[in-house]
Specification:
two-stranded parallel ribbon, 22% strand, Macrophage Migration Inhibitory Factor, Pnp Oxidase, Chain A, alpha+beta, 2 domains, single chain
Length: 219
């Protein structure tokens, strides 16, 4: 009963992970002569900051003689790679960008489609700026199509205040939601839609939008 676990950094699309799982199943069936119903595949995402302690040291370094394929990097290489990838893949908003977006009401969000390359149809949504972060919420909560696409693909593009940016999407939880509520109240106080946008349903579908380098891979 082969069970295969693949651990990798976050950012690969669900489509690619499904393709990987399907190919592993095919190889296990072909090479080891197991029926499909005997094979199970798990894919676990481990962040760059946790990779060395959670994966490299206990599962690679400590079991080096059991590896059928050994990586070409060491723990120190891995730490350097984490720093390099983080600086390459993610930037921060400039004060001017945040100012322009904070004063506009025209943010359109386009998460990638399943192919990880094509932008989805732009959806107009409210946006707020809290400190140095840009936040949005899905009016229909976690059932919103754009929200589901953003959580699956984790990247896409936005346009707002005359700015077009490649971005990544991060789910938001915790006390920051109270501060986001306050900014929604201040920015959209005259709108009849304010109530739903600070409800428990929409708070659960809060997303932080982070700019990223155009050529940095999110998949």
């Amino acid at each position: 009963m082969p069970h295969v676990t693949v651990k990798l950094w976050p950012g690969k699309s669900e489509q690619r992970k499904k393709r990987l799982a399907d190919e592993i199943v095919k190889d296990v069936m072909s090479i080891l002569d197991y029926p499909e119903e005997s094979v199970s595949i798990a894919i676990e995402e481990v962040g760059p900051k946790e990779w060395t302690k959670s994966v490299y040291e206990p599962e690679i370094q400590a079991k080096w003689d059991k590896l059928y394929h050994q990586p070409g990097y060491t723990a120190s290489d891995d730490e350097s790679r984490q720093i390099g990838m983080s600086s390459m893949a993610q930037k921060t908003w400039s004060k001017d960008e945040l100012r322009k977006i904070a004063h506009t009401d025209d943010l359109h969000i386009s998460p990638f489609r399943e192919d990880g390359k094509t932008y989805g149809t732009p959806t107009w949504i409210w946006s707020v700026v809290v400190d140095d972060g840009l936040y949005v919420r899905a009016y229909n909560g976690k059932h919103s199509r754009w929200y589901q696409a953003a959580m699956r693909q984790k990247a896409g593009r936005i346009t707002a205040g005359g700015i077009t940016k490649e971005v990544s999407f991060e789910p938001v939880e915790g006390a920051i939601n109270d501060r986001i509520d306050d900014v929604y109240r201040a920015k959209y106080k005259s709108s009849p839609y304010l109530g739903p946008m600070i409800s428990a349903k929409t708070r659960a579908a809060t997303v932080k939008i982070v700019p990223r380098e155009p050529n940095a891979s999110a998949f």
